[in-house]
């Protein structure tokens, strides 16, 4: 059985939850919830059905729901139609599609992604670029996509894992300028301590996500066993 764990995205200026990121998990035989070995292997029908039901039960509590896809899934015609159908049923909740990049996807044409992003936006779906400035998502590689992106997400945890913590303040300053120039929403992920929260206060970056504001939690449907 699959379910989504949801993690809040907050605006500290208004002290409010602006959305949730949905993180799919699979229940193991012992009852624990685990990260799937391959997201691509999860049937689209299952992902979309869970998305729709989660949105329906959260519709009065949140403005946006973020849904993760890799670049291959993002361009898949079946996934595209499923996302469009889901957005129609989710209103007034806005679907934000977070595009990640997995190994082997570096040959996918950026122009193709840009065109597809504009198509989805015609149906009210927003486009988010995840993990900017780490892995393959450097500025030079995603510059074209910034023309259509509604949101970029900077993951501080990625820099910590690579022992690049000292780079974070300057990188965030750079991405704040880029976000302002492109009129793109910037969410900072991986906020885990009061010191990091204060750093973001000093940089005047109010949109945040991380354990400091809330860990991912299982979203139980109304008819799920307790």
TrEMBL record:
Instruction: Note the Gene3D superfamilies from the entry.
Output: EAL domain
Q: Name one Pfam family in it.
A: EAL
Superkingdom classification of source = Bacteria
**What are the GO MF terms of this UniProt record?**
cyclic-guanylate-specific phosphodiesterase activity
Native organism is Lentilactobacillus rapi
Cite the EAL domain residue spans from the record: 1-226
By what name is this protein known? Diguanylate cyclase
């Amino acid at each position: 059985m699959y379910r989504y764990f949801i993690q809040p995205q907050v605006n500290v200026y208004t002290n409010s939850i602006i959305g949730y990121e949905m993180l799919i998990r699979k229940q193991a035989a012992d009852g624990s919830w685990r990260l799937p070995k391959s997201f691509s292997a999860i049937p689209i029908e299952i992902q979309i059905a869970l998305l729709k039901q989660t949105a329906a039960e959260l519709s009065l509590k949140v403005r946006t729901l973020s849904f993760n896809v890799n670049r291959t899934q993002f361009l898949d015609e079946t996934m595209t139609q499923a996302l469009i159908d889901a957005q129609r049923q989710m209103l007034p909740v806005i679907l934000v599609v977070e595009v990640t990049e997995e190994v082997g996807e570096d040959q996918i044409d950026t122009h193709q992604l840009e065109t597809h992003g504009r198509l989805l936006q015609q149906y009210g779906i927003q486009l988010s670029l995840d993990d900017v400035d780490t892995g393959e998502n450097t500025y030079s590689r995603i510059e074209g996509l910034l023309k259509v992106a509604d949101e970029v997400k900077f993951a501080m945890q990625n820099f910590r894992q690579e022992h690049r913590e000292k780079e974070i303040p300057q990188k965030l300053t750079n991405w704040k300028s880029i976000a302002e120039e492109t009129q793109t929403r910037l969410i900072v992920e991986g906020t885990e301590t009061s010191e990091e929260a204060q750093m973001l206060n000093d940089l005047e970056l109010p949109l945040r996500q991380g354990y400091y504001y809330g860990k991912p939690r299982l979203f139980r449907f109304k008819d799920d066993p307790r």
